[in-house]
Design brief:
EC 4.1.1.20; TIM Barrel; alpha/beta; PLP-binding_barrel; binds lysine; binds pyridoxal-5'-phosphate; 22% strand; 2 domains; decarboxylase; 13 helices; globular; Lyase, Ornithine Decarboxylase, Chain A, domain 1; diaminopimelate decarboxylase activity; Ala_racemase/Decarboxylase_C
């Protein structure tokens, strides 16, 4: 596991945003974070320690202003740097729930969904189907039907799916509508980027997307099937990326593909360059700002269009992490501790790998503060352990914190992306509640699970019941 000892950290104050107009993905705490007169952390005008008293522990705390600000920075950067049409989609795999989809949609974003469940959630949140795009490398017929009947766009990933959709009416029998199915094609660009191998998707050896060597066959197939209305091309090269060059290279490659499509009589108008912009989890991380990233992509697309002499396409991107990652923190209550002399001190909190599986899955490194002791000197190096029956259930290997005691509120930073959405009930722990905070008001957006919720799907056959 990587060392997480930050050089020179003196207290939780260290992590407060320094400027009000920051790019949220470059901050560790939400933009509204401050320390109040009781030396406690406040987010969205709400005292975090009081929120835990009110809503229980652990608690995901989502700052509405930070999420809206990130949406706005993407939207406005496209307006500023791209003279053609554009659309930002929120990749809801980062955190799919009604409130988050509703906020993204109110900010003018569309939604990228990757399953029937995410699609259903976005539809229930009132997102307009013409701004919904369904991904997936093995979509079921049920998922395809839901997408088609709701009118969203399907991002076709492979031959099996393409053939199924090419013969859609014969596959499903009586089609509800004879309109062609609105699709895009996902291609694997063969572009490498430096991120964890599990979250890299653009290299050729990836389970996602068509092999670009088969472009001619794919375009020929699409051009011969009137059931398909192919509006554009998609590629995504990976996640938590700090370099700008891979997306700029991608832009050039995609414009060439678009040009090739026209030689098959396919008039595609949309290019989607995926998501992937990284965020700051520790002070060592240095991602570009949202504006810089958008500017780089827009410039690369325009240059490539000039070279290929083609009109500007409608430009889409689908960030997840950089929209919501730093808008949320997770608050836990400190419980037991154990000192192994000469080795380390473990401090246990009331959650762990079930509410944040990223450390155990990707060796991800996080920072933490003690919400009720924000200015206390961080003089101790401790290991933050979860409560699961698993030695690897360590949230932070070496956290530098003030001396803490049972009842303190430990807050792990930048947990908005791929935490709730990857949470589980391992060891039958109930998933925490989530609240959205804004201007001093907190509202529950996800109820805390109860023991009854945990048993919701259990069935006890009569022959196993002790009452028979
Ligand atoms: C197809 C696709 N689009 C968008 C995203 C969102 O990526 P990120 O959260 O890194 O912006 C992902 C996840 O990597 C993805 O697989
Ligand atoms: N779940 C990953 C990101 C996956 C990206 C989806 N393609 C993470 O937590 O970093």
């Amino acid at each position: 596991m990587l060392s997480t000892h930050p050089a020179g950290v003196q207290s939780g104050r260290q992590f407060l945003p320094k400027v009000t107009d920051a790019s949220p993905n470059q901050e560790l705490l939400p933009l509204t974070a401050r320390i109040n007169s009781s030396d406690r952390l406040e987010i969205g005008g709400c005292d975090v320690t009081t929120l835990v008293e009110q809503f229980g522990s652990p608690l995901y705390i989502l700052d509405e202003d930070t999420l809206r600000n990130a949406c706005c920075q993407y939207r406005e950067a496209f307006k500023k740097y791209y003279p053609g049409e554009s659309q930002v989609l929120y990749a809801s795999k980062a955190w799919s729930c009604l409130a988050v989809c509703a906020i993204a949609s109110q900010e003018g974003l569309g939604i990228d969904v990757v399953s029937g469940g995410e699609l259903y959630t976005a539809l229930q949140a009132g997102v307009s189907p013409d701004k919904l795009y369904l991904h997936g490398n093995n979509k079921s017929l049920e998922e395809l039907k839901l997408a088609i009947n709701s009118g969203c766009t399907i991002v076709v990933d492979n031959w099996h799916e393409l053939r199924t959709l090419g013969h859609w009416s014969s596959v499903i029998g009586n089609s509800d509508t004879n309109d062609p199915v609105r699709i895009m094609l996902r291609l694997t660009p063969g572009i490498e980027c430096h991120t964890h191998e599990y979250i890299r998707t653009g290299h050729l050896d990836s389970k996602f997307g068509f092999d670009p060597n088969q472009l001619d066959e794919v375009f020929a197939f699409v051009s011969q099937h009137s059931a398909l209305n192919c509006v554009g091309l998609h590629a995504h090269i990976g996640s938590q990326i700090f370099e700008q060059q891979p997306h700029q290279d991608l832009a050039g490659v995609m414009v060439q593909w678009l040009d090739k499509a026209s030689s098959y009589g396919l008039q595609m108008q949309e290019l989607n360059v995926g998501g992937g912009l990284g965020i700051r989890y520790t002070e060592a991380d240095d991602p570009p700002s949202i504006e810089a990233w958008v500017k780089g992509v827009c410039t690369a697309i325009q240059n490539a269009c000039v070279t290929q002499q083609i009109a500007l396409p409608k430009l889409l991107c689908e960030p997840g992490r950089s929209l919501i990652g730093s808008a949320c923190v997770t608050a836990y209550t400190v419980g037991s501790s154990k000192t192994v002399p000469g080795i380390r001190t473990y401090i246990a909190i009331d959650g762990g790998m079930s509410d944040n599986p990223r450390p155990i899955t990707y060796q991800s490194v996080y920072r933490a503060v003690v919400a009720n002791k924000m200015s206390a000197p961080a003089t101790q190096t401790v290991t933050i352990a979860g409560k699961h029956c698993e030695s690897g259930d360590i949230l932070i290997k070496e956290a530098t914190l003030p001396p803490s005691e049972p009842g303190d509120i430990l807050v792990v930073l930048a947990t908005g992306a791929y935490n709730y959405s990857m949470a589980s009930n391992y060891n039958r722990l109930a998933r925490p509640a989530a609240v959205v905070v804004k201007a001093g008001e907190a509202n529950v957006i996800l109820r805390r699970e109860t023991y009854q919720d945990l048993m919701r799907q259990d069935c006890l056959p009569a022959r196993l019941s002790s009452e028979t």
